[in-house]
Amino acid sequence: MPEIRKDPFTDEQVIIAMERAKRPTDFHDDGSNKEEKTCFFCRGREKLTPSETFRIDDDNGEWIVRSFPNKFPILCSDMTDGNGIHEVIVDNCGHDKSFFNMNIKEFKYMLLAYKNRYIALYNTASTQYVSVFKNYLKKAGASLDHPHSQIISLPIIPNIIMTELNNCKKFYEYRGEIMHQVLIREERDKGDRVIFETDNFIVIAPFASKYNYETQIIYKNKGLFQSMTDRIITELSEVFFGLFSRYGNVLGRFPFNLFLHAHPNLMEDAPYNWHLHITPRVSQQAGFELSTGIYVNDIPPEKAAKLLISAGH
Amino acid sequence: MPEIRKDPFTDEQVIIAMERAKRPTDFHDDGSNKEEKTCFFCRGREKLTPSETFRIDDDNGEWIVRSFPNKFPILCSDMTDGNGIHEVIVDNCGHDKSFFNMNIKEFKYMLLAYKNRYIALYNTASTQYVSVFKNYLKKAGASLDHPHSQIISLPIIPNIIMTELNNCKKFYEYRGEIMHQVLIREERDKGDRVIFETDNFIVIAPFASKYNYETQIIYKNKGLFQSMTDRIITELSEVFFGLFSRYGNVLGRFPFNLFLHAHPNLMEDAPYNWHLHITPRVSQQAGFELSTGIYVNDIPPEKAAKLLISAGH
Q1: Which pLDDT belongs to residue B20?
Q2: In chain B, which stretches have pLDDT less than 50?
Q3: How far is A173 from chain B (nearest CA, A)?
Q4: Same structural domain for residues B30 and B60?
Q5: DSSP secondary-structure letter at A139?
Q6: B236 close to B111: Cβ distance less than 8 angstroms
Q7: Same structural domain for residues B35 and B96?
Q8: pLDDT top residue among A1 and A127
Q9: Do A152 and B288 touch (CB under 8 A)?
């Protein structure tokens, strides 16, 4: 059974999850793909996965997006620390689809599944925080090829989220404004890290980018991730499509992680704007980062933004 | 010029270091070695490196270990935040040497160089902290094959070190004992995470291990890293030799990082024992870790310790 441990010196949180070691992989150690074999996530293989928790069908009744419990969960129910649910969301039925070739409609189906599973996990007993993330290619931690995302409910609030919320709370008490709102205004004034903007979203290369070509999609308004309307979801799909077209033009296909930072349970009023991180994994964290926790980034975000801005024309 | 930035939301520290992007590499993107070419770190190529800062010679006057400034530094002098010095220590003259085939004497020469450069950098103006680390193989962030380590003086104290020191200080005020001493006693009593022990060092698999097969070499006494006597250095060389023989027996050669956590400048009296971390890089940090800062480890440290204990017999 998984166990949550805390380092008494660094306060770092670790989940010891033995079940994970058994999970299958499509990749060799060098990151190259194994010979073709049965994909568990393709159409027609539904019986190879645990029972479905959500699906969206096309007009012929065939699924486009579906989700189910992860067979090799990071967390599970009945832990001493509370329950955790870990699900897989298959982004799209197409085995060869990726963020680099999905259309706006396909992004929208995926985001509808994100929202549905987010609400389901958020409302589960003992959930303190829900983490949504995606690993693309082996270098970013993917073990299977077929495009998929993951969602986990946690019985704790991660330290990193607590730190963000505390800083935002302090800022709000001191300045009477949400830190994200001030950041958006200042980035817009400065201009050299804003990649593009829509009515409700702004895409930036963060000032303290830890990863080469890192970006953030920030929701500009107050509100919860799970409260996104259909119109907002369509707009976010367009943002994804626009951002990944630019990424593709600059870097081709590359390993990346996507993840959401949003309000914890019972902290819905926190002065905090939910946002999505995209972290390309083209550089490598080495001994200096592990030793000091200080990240080294050899591509200034201003340069990354400039390239991504130009790539949109 | 490198610039130290702080994320206002997460407090995370980042160094934007453009010069690093120019550094050469012995590896292809998939981690395999490029065709043989001139190694900058081998004997006879001394003119290809910046001027030597330290060396130990053999009886014929040929160097065994040497150090010099890093040509592609993470930090440099004249930064707005203060100075930083970044040096390379060539662990051994042998191109094919590694921690898996070095003998006790070779470990000792390397550690003597660590100590010499540590003292030199520690005593440099504006140094707040000195980081010593090693990246072995591309998957652990090495860009060159020849066995080498790195040392950096920082004009700031890394957050992770401040957190460790604060926790140790609080513990000491509350309990009147150094947290490391209590940890050592408790680990010894429990026994299932202690790999081996010598007069002055204990080698453990930490309770909250973040990486598969992670270990720590903890110095058991009060004292500074730079105050190690010749006898203690010999003992530590034996510890390295013993630990990496065990590692080799269990895992073969594998990518890893080594790093030191020690007292910051002007905090020499902190109730803190210096220690070395060895973090194998056989697993991959993915979206969940990036999103939450919570590490997932699918090999319990008790199991890692058991394997490493058996491998010594």
Answers
A1: 74
A2: none
A3: 15
A4: yes
A5: G
A6: yes
A7: yes
A8: A127
A9: yes
